[in-house]
Amino acid sequence: MSRKRVLAGVAATLTITLGLAACGSGGGIEGGGAEGGGGGGSAETVFRLAFNQTEEHPQYKAAMQMGEDLYEATDGRYGIEVYANELLGTQSDVVNNVSEGSVEMMLIGGPLMESFNPDFVVFNLPYMFASQEAQAAVFADTAATGELFASIEESKNITVVAGLFAGVRNVYNNERPVRTPEDLAGLRLRVQQSDSQVAMIEAMGGVASPMGQGEVYTALQSGVLEGAENNETVYNSLKHDEVAKYYSYTEHLMIPDYLLMNTDVLAQMSEEDRAAFTELVPALVEDANTGFFEFIETSRAASEENGAEFNEDVDVEAFRQRVAPLVEESIDNDVKQGLYDAVQQYNEQYPAES
Known about the structure:
Tripartite ATP-independent transporter solute receptor, DctP family, 6-stranded mixed beta sheet, receptor, TRAP_DctP_sf, D-Maltodextrin-Binding Protein, domain 2, 13 helices, alpha/beta, 12 strands, 41% helix, DctP_fam, signal
């Protein structure tokens, strides 16, 4: 699987649902500034955007820039405040607030979307995308993803504004380097709170422990966990490299993040302001996606300075074979099959770098 810098033209992906209902009640928007960081805090209406990573993350920076640009594009009518570090709560809690409208926007990990529509699982399956370029192309194809991204507007009042690259996830632990599935035996690894992620780690040979991100460091430090799985940026920024020194490139997941927005809030904007908002989304996606590759490089270097060992001598094919039955059994309806077929189309067009 390629970890090279993505072509900027492909990275600027966007899927936006424009078929919104007429303005509804709710939304919970309040004017004035807010404490929390981000751009556009002095706007007449400020959208709160919840984020579970640090201010150094490229998605935070891209969202903050979007807030400033939105303020200018709407002549001060709208802005965005970005709340990092789970300041507004965990993702599983905040997504309910977005649904209700008490928080207008958030960035969320792909697995949590499965609880709203199980069809999202396709993009969360192991070894689904051959390359980041393939993933970006899928999200740029509204014919492939438009209905999926609109699928929770009626049930949850949430619009999926965009899909973003969130790195390639690998395993790390405090016991040993991992080269084969046998090396995971007995290791308790944190996974996201998703049935598919639990099944994946079990198939790969480890012991899955679903847990919120904020609990992982203490669990590793205390011995409740031996390891976890995530990309290099989280590994470094949340200081997991202090308590789990062995990072191994199993390259098992390329799960996207999604930018969500309360559907009523978006619909309540004037046509002019909503157009200004949607026109800014491609720049947000491009900034976040291209910035992620630089963030990976600096994160790995920082972790190596902290004494972490990065192991690229991994039998990726052995892990791929272990999880192949999980992928096959997860594609269990026509919608999932269509999404899977779209991914395979772009995997052929953008194969992994050899």
